[in-house]
Specification:
four-stranded mixed beta sheet, single chain, about 160 residues, alpha+beta, elongated, two-stranded antiparallel sheet, 6 helices, Transcriptional regulator, AbiEi antitoxin, Type IV TA system
Length: about 160
């Protein structure tokens, strides 16, 4: 492995974690986040989420975050691989794929961690909630929301 590292065919990200760099016209490319996390966890049952994903909801958030949240069943804590920081969070349940309904619920769960103005986000989320699939939003709140998030979504949808 040392020879492969010396020739540049293999790069070390952290203790016990290596990758084969791909080349582009601009130099070596970093490893794919999904493959990196799967190798670290030795499992492919996880969900990658950047807090910047909340911007797709068009709630007025504009912040970009330099970390990726990983919902999984195995690890908890912040880990840095190369120049990327991953915030691993053990969760009993999480969806296989991101949806707008899950993103609203997750935003409400993690509102205190966001840099945006909380009142603006809440007001815009309340306006956005009725435009989403009501059944899916209630299901996401039921499956993934905190008690406060569940109550807020029920109130917004007049349930």
């Amino acid at each position: 492995m040392k020879q492969l590292q010396e020739t540049g065919r293999l790069k070390k990200l952290s203790r016990g974690l290596y990758y084969v760099p791909r080349q582009s016209a601009y130099g070596a490319l970093p490893p794919d986040d999904r493959k990196l996390v799967a190798a670290f966890l030795r499992d492919d049952n996880f969900l990658l989420l950047s807090p910047a994903s909340y911007n797709t909801l068009e709630l007025g958030g504009t912040q970009l975050y330099n970390r990726t949240v990983v919902y999984n069943h195995k690890r908890h804590g912040r880990f840095t691989f190369g120049n990327r920081t991953f915030d691993f969070r053990m969760k009993p349940r999480f969806p296989r794929r991101l949806s707008h309904e899950f993103l609203i619920v997750d935003l409400l769960n993690n509102l205190d961690e966001l840099a945006e103005e909380h009142e603006d986000l809440l007001r815009n989320a309340q306006l956005k909630a009725p435009t989403l699939d009501r059944r899916k939003l209630m299901q996401a709140a039921s499956n993934f929301g905190t008690v406060a998030t569940k109550q807020l979504v029920k109130k917004w949808l007049d349930v």
